[in-house]
Amino acid sequence: MNKKSPSDSNLKQAGKISVATFAIMNVVAVVSLRGLPAEAEYGLSSVFYYVFAALFFLVPVSLVAAELATGWPEKGGIFRWVGEAFGPRLAFISMFLLFVQVCVWFPTALTFGAVSLAFIGPDQTFDAALSQNKFFVLAIVLAIYWFATFVAFKGVSAFTLLSKWGGIIGTIIPAIILILLGFSFYFSGAKIQIDLSWSQLVPDFSNFNNVVLAASIFLFYAGMEMNAIHVKDLDNPTRSYPLAIGMAALGTVVIFILGTLAIAFVIPSADINLTQSLLVAYFDMFKWAGLGFLAPIMAICLAIGVLAGIVTWVAGPSTGLLEVAKAGYMPRFWQHTNKNGMATHILLVQGIIVSFLAITFVVLPSVEAAYQILSQLAAVIYLTLYMLMFSAAIYLRFSQPNRPRPYRVPGGKKGLYVIAGVGFTASLTAFAFSFIPPSQIAVGSPTVFISLLVGLTLLFIAIPLVIYAVRKPHWRDENSDFAPFTWQIEGVHPGLQNHSDKHTPLVTESHQKNQGGKA
């Protein structure tokens, strides 16, 4: 008779998250309003893009991440998954790229916050001009970011409350108001700015420029993998997880579609601006409803939402990189923490990177151009991570076929290969399109645009390769509790098949006991 491991028992007893709660967690992790104007330009055809990206990207990411998170639940996330499949070098590159991707994302998110603050004045014409002032945007971006860093230095308790209520005030409530106002405008019989005929639903694929810019919609759904680690806290994850993901995917798609259409109802596609149009839509709709005085308040709410997100993300990836550094992958300098346990040196370097990227706003033709190039750089890096994640999931079914996985992608091995293969292909396609300058936006010289993307991407890959090549044994913190990879503990190579059928927590427990005995 087979005995159940302590880990297996814990997994069954930990079911404390309901399906509905888990679905909401995933919606909150993914939904952001700042990207809606980019898709509002497509009018009704944006519905097609949202549904297409959900089926070929959102669902594969969610299902594959769940299998990886339950099969290898120790600290590390994508570092752990890629390392289990391909070894520590690619794992470290993945962790470093995740850190850099967030650094690149900060200026784009903060640009939206700066534009929101520009629109709190009474004169919309002046506000619009202020939001295009590169020096105003740069000053606000740097001020908010370094304030968020200062808060992060104070520790987790300093920003938990701000993160929670900032998300509600700055994302959920504005989304509901946007949709209610937009569709009230539509049902009132007022003249809308898009054609809602069925012929407009399917995009014009003969227009290559539309396909290029629309590829960015894949990154609208990025982040669903963040909560995959909590799959083990669901009762009956095999049934509950797909149900929760289905609800979350449907809710996310509905919010994106209705929010995008609400903007398209009010603003002509020719007038859509990536950084301003969301605020302009709120102003126009509030004015139409006779509630114009509420528009500046909404701008403040959106800025609060940005601040809350930034404060949360400033500390998140830096903490992950700190754990990996202590495991021996970075010099001791990068492992320095303050009395609150925050990675001070990593946070400071992160701030320098963000500041450097933000200053590019001054040299590019416009705030909108800077916003677009940084958004596409973030997309290139994030899509690289997703391709590694899908590849790891496929390879681990070969290299560790018997490793217990409390949740498995439906359809057995073929089901995983199909779903992960679809996700990899979608990520690769979007990755390739990300290097093509969008014709709708003046980004200056296309050569400079592409050179910046390629050069920075190669630089961010080269840095962790160099660090890994020169790593030293004394870099590892003797107090680090970062678990080794299962193939390391079991004395095999990640490139070879390992038929071990022990759950990774049990493997880790055995290793820790052996280490304790040796000590």
Automatic annotation (TrEMBL):
Composition bias type Polar residues, residue spans: 507-519
Keyword Transmembrane among UniProt keywords: yes
Gene3D superfamilies referenced in this protein's UniProt entry, alphabetically: Amino acid/polyamine transporter I
Protein topology in the membrane: Multi-pass membrane protein
Transmembrane regions: 14-35, 47-69, 90-115, 135-153, 165-187, 207-224, 245-268, 288-316, 346-367, 373-396, 416-436, 448-470
Stretch list, region Disordered: 498-519
Protein's cellular compartments: Cell membrane
InterPro entries: AA/rel_permease1, APC_superfamily, Glu/GABA_antiporter_put
Gene Ontology CC entries for this record: plasma membrane
Single GO term (MF): transmembrane transporter activity
Residues in coiled coil: none
PANTHER family from the UniProt entry: AMINO ACID TRANSPORTER-RELATED, GLUTAMATE_GAMMA-AMINOBUTYRATE ANTIPORTER-RELATED
Name recorded for this polypeptide: Amino acid transporter
Organism: Enterovibrio coralii
